[in-house]
């Protein structure tokens, strides 16, 4: 079995170049198209519309369907299908991503693994073009596959941050990449907004405009993934695993996972950060994944208005990520993330009181979300990278990614259950405050420098 002492390190000065950092950051640009166009804006309301057409044919959009869907004999409210689908995808991911992390640490060419996983997810995202009528079952399957591949590819991607950036530079590099992602996702969303607004002039139906937008997100994700895959192609795996290799791929991966679970108790501050992240990130992910559903179903906005909303969030988040990165350079990532959690609590409370149809007020909420969203996520990633043992980056980031964006399951489950119990999305969105409060209180207890020392990493100037 392996241990931290079996790490084989390449020369970090060769890997930590500006060229490597720029190439690495392009994957945020690539996958953000799927996160924004598909995951945040279109798929939840579109999947709900497909399910409504199956359960209540001919019912007007936005009307409450009194009939339930049946999945393996279990009654599911039409409005709960989308959050339940994300919940199921997350539960599957929580198990699978651990194996992905173990494989990635043993893989001789991690960037090719990154590309393979990304292209598989992009294929599933592109196939969403074929969703129409009442075919929500295919939609559920494609969402699960795309989300799983998204999370798996991000495990490999996040772990490479340790390879391309010095500890003192990680907040900046991570924040710039996240800002680049918001810019890319926003640009594609502008294009899709034009298609959905001008669909009649283009000679297509509104449904076809949505389907083309779903397709564009998959193609964007696949195409721009070429930049990090080619730009980082010379980076090799960091860990030698001779015993695992002799045991074969499956046996070796299981052996390495067993070793990691035994060792993880030696990193209590890393575990405490993960627990904090589980809660406050679940709150963030639930807000992100449910925003369009909340806006359309609870507040009565059109899909085009929700695209405008997400565009505001995207472009404000570009500046917000850079702003939070600059603040972290002065006061440290931990304090900055804690401030962001407080802001999230206030933003959700504000969203609860937005009147139905009050689009201008809703846009104010969008500006607040954009300001805080990118910074808290980017700095959480860079802060965690300091707490990860050398040679186990992918494995430890698999724990992290199981709780990452689009894979939250406590929050989406609570959101779906609250809607099923109350028939309203307002109390459902308000319940996310509980996750922010618990996560923030746990993060307060994390002793970051102690965790960095335990992981055997170089101490940054400011944490």
UniProtKB/TrEMBL annotation:
This is MFS transporter, UMF1 family. Residues 271-463 form the Major facilitator superfamily (MFS) profile domain. It comes from the Bacteria. GO terms for cellular component: plasma membrane. It is found in: Cell membrane. Keywords: Membrane, Transmembrane, Transmembrane helix, Transport. The keyword Transcription does not apply. The chain crosses the membrane at residues 81-104, 111-130, 136-157, 177-196, 208-230, 271-294, 306-329, 336-353, 359-379, 399-419, 425-444. InterPro entries: Atg22-like (IPR024671), ATG22/LtaA_families (IPR050495), MFS_dom (IPR020846), MFS_trans_sf (IPR036259). It is a multi-pass membrane protein. GO terms for molecular function: transmembrane transporter activity. It comes from Ornithinimicrobium cerasi. SUPFAM superfamilies: MFS general substrate transporter. The keyword Repeat does not apply.
